[in-house]
Amino acid sequence: MLSPSQVLKERDELDGYNIDWLRTCKGASSLVLKPKTTLDVSNIVKYCSKRHLAVVPQGGNTGLVGGSVPVFDEIVICTALMNSILTLDKHSGVLTCQAGCILEALDDYLAEYDLMMPLDLGAKASCHIGGNVSTSAGGLRLLRYGSLHGSILGLEAVLANGEIVNCMSAMRKDNTGYDLKQLFIGAEGTLGIVTQVAVLCPRRPQAVHVAFLACRSFGEVLKVLHQAKGMLGEILSAFEVMDQAAMNVVTKNLHLKNPLGDSNYYLIVETSGSNAEHDGAKLDKFLQDLMDKGMVHNGTVAQDINQRKEIWALRERVAEGMLHEGFNYKYDVSLPTQNFYDLVADMQKHLGQDLPCVGYGHVGDGNLHLNIASPQYDKRVLDRIEPYIYEWVANHGGSISAEHGLGLKKRNYIHYSKTPSAVKLMKQMKQLMDPKGILNPYKVLPD
User: Fold this and answer.
1) What are the strands, taking DSSP E only, across 180-304?
2) Burial of 270 (0-12, 13-18, 19+ CB in 10 A)
3) Separation of alpha carbons 142 and 136, rounded Å
4) What's the CA gap between 172 and 185, in Å, rounded?
5) How far are the Cα atoms of 301, 319, 328 from residue 382, in angstroms, in the given order?
6) What is the distance between the alpha carbons of residues 142 and 182, in angstroms, rounded to a whole number?
7) What is the secondary structure of 345-398 as a DSSP string?
8) Are strands 327-334 and 85-89 parallel, antiparallel or unpaired?
9) I want to staple 364 with a disulfide (CB 3.0 to 4.6 A). Which of 13, 34, 138, 239 is the partner?
10) Helix or strand or coil: residue 378?
């Protein structure tokens, strides 16, 4: 079925596939299979289905909720060799490719045609597009380009019995029956293994500007966001926030330079458009308005691509910097904008100063990343955090998972964001599509 080089069985080869990126979840798989084609995946799953063998689909293994590693001894199906770009329609901007293509590699390829991927993640150098789709990854520019539920025009997936479902439409409009591809976007490989995708790729902007701003209060942050949406409008492509604690993590642990000095909050405001002079004038007017109204007390604008990268690194490398702080308790939630930072303040009060809380994220779309660290894993600390944090989010009308998914870690807390009737229907769908329960077991759905 596969060549010897596509089968890994030695202990030293298996470690990286059994442990997640945070090194908090570890399985005991004794077999990793690396298919090259959809037919390979189909044959593997057929074989496993007949023998009631559980499988875990795995891409770049950059997930943060334990969704891409075995819980016990499930067989890992790694898509790393399924990395071919299939077609590109330069007129419509539709790219088709295999699920194992690395996000950054796809974006680099598209750059040659003045196109870009509609999502950008901190893990772009190693995450796979199939994993992005399976977790419905959001990222830094969802504010501008929307979610993958809109950008993915079609996909192909292998079901639990090995059957191949081809929904690889490249049409933006296709109103013929149920939109089946949506079942697999965000399902984390529990309903089928995504093997190919068709992605609608926007034009690559000819002009990009990045401003880095400092605010004294979160009220000022919200005022700046309101002004940005009104004054920058169609060219606004990202609006990110990080608090002083997040800044301290990257400057202390990664030795990055903070160009603004100390502040309670920092903002990255990015614009992307087709006319540098027009966009620059709009940004200058916006920044002058902020200064005149006292919404920011310091700021700088990147003068070239290197400075843009330096500013973005401050935000994108917070998760990396947090690893130096000890064991990480990571939370990815959606909240109404007015409550965005209240959770960080309330958690800090709830936990006390001995457990610093770090807040940052995509304030433009209401997605907060809250990180807490202790010197080592401590069940008593976890019990103080959970379920308190989920109750807080539910009470404020938010979601306990904005973009990371539920995986293993959050599956039993799904009821804080979904009603009993919704969870019941999800379980019925799982039973219908995977009656033997072999696809990524112990993930997404509660016990």
Assistant:
1) 193-200, 207-215, 236-243, 265-273, 298-301
2) buried
3) 11
4) 17
5) 40, 19, 10
6) 18
7) HHHHHHH-TTS-EEEEEEGGGTEEEEEEEESS--HHHHHHHTTHHHHHHHHTT-
8) unpaired
9) 239
10) coil
Q: Is residue 235 within 8 Å of residue 282, measured between CB atoms?
A: yes
Residue 202, judged by CB atoms within 10 A of its CB (0-12, 13-18, 19+), counts as: middle
What percent of the residues of the chain are helix, what percent strand, and what percent coil, each to the nearest 5? 35, 25, 40
Dihedral pair phi/psi, residue 325, rounded to 5°: -90, -10
Residue reference for tokens 């993930």: 443
Q: CA–CA separation, 393 vs 383, rounded Å?
A: 16
User: How many angstroms separate the CA atoms of 166 and 267, rounded?
Assistant: 42
Q: Can you tell me whether residue 156 is helix, strand or coil?
A: strand
Per-residue pLDDT of the chain (447 residues), as tens digits, is 799 999 999 999 999 999 998 889 999 999 999 999 999 999 999 999 999 999 999 999 999 999 999 999 999 999 999 999 999 999 999 999 999 999 999 999 999 999 999 999 989 999 999 999 999 999 999 999 999 999 999 999 999 999 999 999 999 999 999 999 999 999 999 999 999 999 999 999 999 999 999 999 999 999 999 999 999 999 999 999 999 999 999 999 999 999 999 999 999 999 999 999 999 999 999 999 999 999 999 999 999 999 999 999 999 999 999 999 999 999 999 999 999 999 999 999 999 988 999 999 999 999 999 999 999 999 999 999 999 999 999 999 999 999 999 999 999 999 999 999 999 999 999 999 999 999 999 999 999
pTM tops 0.90: yes
Q: Report d(CA 362, CA 147) in Å as an integer.
A: 13
Tokens, residue 393: 């989010």
> Which structure tokens are listed for 407?
């995986």
Name the H helices within 146-243.
148-151, 181-184, 218-231
Phi and psi dihedrals of 243, rounded to 5?
A: -90, 175
Q: Which tokens go with 35?
A: 């298919």
